[in-house]
Design brief:
It is a single chain. The protein has 106 residues and is an alpha/beta fold. Helices cover 37% and strands 14% of the residues. It has a three-stranded parallel beta sheet, sandwiched between helices. The protein has a two-stranded antiparallel ribbon with strand order 2-3. β2 and β3 form a beta hairpin. Keywords: Phosphoprotein.
């Protein structure tokens, strides 16, 4: 699934794809992102600290990952949805819409 195209198809103006944490380190997350889809592992590294930064900055986000320990994520990030891989585009869009406080697309 092309997540970038999926985001654009649902109204995203600019989509930033990072394949490694160094591509997003140092950014002012509060001003750079309106919302995020975060894989728990990126380029072989955990994204937990990055996700914590998003949460601290008030940036809505969801996890989209094949990570197997959903209970650990739920405990560390209550209220943040984990969309398990493989997932449908509809599942991901609905999760992001909910994270942003918007009703699910019809």
């Amino acid at each position: 699934m092309d997540v970038e195209q999926l985001c654009r198809d649902h109204g995203a103006g600019e989509v930033v794809i990072a394949r490694d944490l160094t591509e997003v380190d140092g950014r002012e997350v509060a001003t750079q992102f309106d919302a995020a889809i975060v894989d728990l592992m990126l380029g072989g590294a955990s994204t937990i600290d990055f996700a914590s930064g998003l949460r601290a900055a008030g940036v809505p986000f969801v996890f989209a990952s094949g990570y197997s320990d959903a209970d650990e994520i739920k405990a560390s990030f209550p209220g943040i949805r984990l969309v398990g891989k493989p997932y449908s585009g509809e599942d991901l869009v609905q999760a992001v819409a909910a994270a942003c406080g918007r009703a699910s697309p019809v």
